[in-house]
Design brief:
alpha/beta; five-stranded parallel β-sheet; 21% strand; Rossmann fold; seven-stranded parallel β-sheet; 39% helix
Length: 361
């Protein structure tokens, strides 16, 4: 049975979260009122996973994550209030080693948490499977990777002049649990010379995707923003699907694509859904396409990969060893339509190789 420590400075929220997890078959071995108690509980009980509140007295969630990763690496799911400030803090927690975050509902908390209980239990179970050992924690940060490549000799993948690439390539990236840092890492190493139009779908709630896009933009040579309905992008630009809305390609002409955002029902129990973006792109884009599935729980993206392959696009999936959760990549690979399975560090080169002039898909 999966075991968990629940950390929250509200006794009421401790009880609500603990009850939801226990009802879902997850054993809550300890509760903590602050980060200090959370760290102590992890050391004493060695749980499979920790749910961690962001703002707590004595030691906040970020400091607690840092302490846990240094003393006894354990998967952590941040529970964050739905505010701009907490969005920033949640991403800082990911930088310290947290696997993912789940937004606490507003309003009548007990009723809302009950409504979301299945989603919370599923995410806690998925995060519990994440590898946060030494190898995982030592992966390069997107910003440090970019700084390093700017001060050292370029790799063969990034050294090619623009003439070596096919014209008007589109890159579609899908990810979920454990994905934000992986997406940042890939985008930080993507050469601007390749001139991609990039569509990113990360399972993430509304209010967080704008900050996520800003972070990618800070670490990438590409111009990255959160998608808005009707947005057009061309070469060297990227957009991130807005939380809570599907992003579909609505028009493509001479290297420029337009997207529309919809609130259609969730697909694969998620919105935005990777399948929606990839499948719509495959229908309308007649220039080279590359689809990439990164770490995440569930099966979203598998149908999208099939759609891209059906129109002779290139497809890549992250390997199990470097995936926090090997759900989405595994399902994509099982379709038989994934060209390459690569560790996260090799995916940027893998992407570039698909659009080298004369590349065979």
């Amino acid at each position: 049975m999966t075991s968990a420590v629940v950390a929250d400075d509200s006794h009421f929220m401790q009880s609500v979260i603990s009850d939801i997890l226990e009802d879902g078959g997850i054993e809550v071995v300890a509760q903590a009122r602050n980060g200090k108690e959370a760290v102590e509980a992890v050391i004493e009980h060695s749980p499979d996973v920790v749910t961690m509140d962001v703002e707590m007295p004595e030691m906040n969630g970020i400091e607690a994550v840092e302490q846990i990763m240094a003393r006894q690496p354990t998967p952590v799911l941040m529970l964050s209030a739905h505010t701009d400030e907490n969005a920033d803090v949640s991403f800082q927690a990911l930088d310290k080693g947290a696997v993912d975050f789940f937004t606490k509902p507003g309003g009548e908390v007990s009723m809302e948490m009950s409504r979301l209980k299945d989603q919370l239990v599923e995410m806690v179970r998925s995060v519990a499977k994440a590898d946060v050992g030494e190898a995982s924690r030592s992966r390069p940060d997107a910003r440090s990777t970019r700084q390093q490549t700017e001060t050292t000799e370029p790799t063969s993948a990034t050294a090619s002049p623009a003439a070596d690439y096919v014209e008007n390539p589109t890159l579609l990236i899908g990810s979920s649990t454990g994905g934000p840092k992986m997406v940042e890492q890939v985008m930080s190493q993507l050469p601007i010379e390749a001139d991609f139009r990039v569509l990113i779908v990360q399972h993430m709630p509304g209010g967080f995707t704008e900050r996520f896009a800003n972070r990618i933009n800070e670490g990438s040579d590409y111009e990255v923003s959160e998608a808005a309905d009707g947005d057009r992008i061309g070469g060297g630009e990227a957009i991130v699907a807005a939380g809570g809305k599907h992003m579909v390609v609505s028009n493509y002409h001479k290297g420029r694509l337009r997207v529309k955002l919809t609130e259609d029902p969730p697909v694969n129990s998620v919105r935005p859904a990777v399948d929606m973006t990839m499948s719509s792109a495959a229908e309308l884009i007649d220039d080279p396409m590359t689809g990439v599935i990164l770490t995440g729980m569930g099966e979203d993206g598998a149908a999208g990969i099939k759609s891209i392959k059906a129109v002779d696009g290139a497809t890549i999936a992250q390997n199990e060893e470097t995936s926090a959760v090997f759900g989405m990549p595994k399902r994509a690979i099982e379709t038989g339509f994934v060209d390459e399975v690569l560790p996260i560090g090799e995916i940027p080169d893998g992407i570039v190789n698909t659009v080298k002039d004369g590349a065979k898909h």
